[in-house]
């Protein structure tokens, strides 16, 4: 379903004025419906790899293949089907929501962008999946809790019927009891929707609970 072939990336180090390797020949494969965990120490490049796989950051070399199509160099217009089918759940879900828009309007936005059916029933069904009340639709992002905003970002992703979720430490900002609820929710959704996951976490117990297999990253390499 998603394959990275020898993906490499450098960042500029402003203090030394030099480039340094953040991803070095990273290759991985995620099959349809499979949950793959990605672990590794802080700063080893996991979030960068997630953003490169999502085509949010360009690669320096290597290829990203989604469902047999090479998406590495596709234009934003050509990427539209990919943008619908591969969704991102971040450790900072509030960044998905415009602080000036009510949450209902923010949830509708992607449906309009992707020309998908948009109705109150569809939005309320997505909210029910993540166990949230429709009353939240009338609020602004600062008027909900951290756990609720993460549930809303999951609902936002689910509305697009993705085939793959890339989750970057999705519960690291939440307290333990809310973490457990969100993990359980994600596990149930994955089973129901038969989605694939790339699940990034530094927590081995979380990866063991959520994933079929795990990869390890160290200093920009998948080992
Ligand atoms: N835009 C950027 N420009 C330059 N360096 C960056 C940039 N983003 C991240 N880095 C650096 O690249 C390295 C990898 O960062 P990245 O966020 O991918 O690691 P990570 O494994 O996800 O870390 P964590 O587990 O702490 O989130 C780090 O040294 C980080 O400081």
UniProtKB/TrEMBL annotation:
Keywords: ATP-binding, Nucleotide-binding, Transport. It comes from Phascolarctobacterium faecium. SMART domains: AAA (SM00382). Belongs to the ABC transporter superfamily. GO terms for biological process: transmembrane transport. It holds the Pfam family ABC_tran. Residues 2-223 form the ABC transporter domain. InterPro entries: AAA+_ATPase, ABC_transp_ATP-bind, ABC_transporter-like_ATP-bd, P-loop_NTPase. This is ABC transporter ATP-binding protein. GO terms for molecular function: ATP binding; ATP hydrolysis activity.
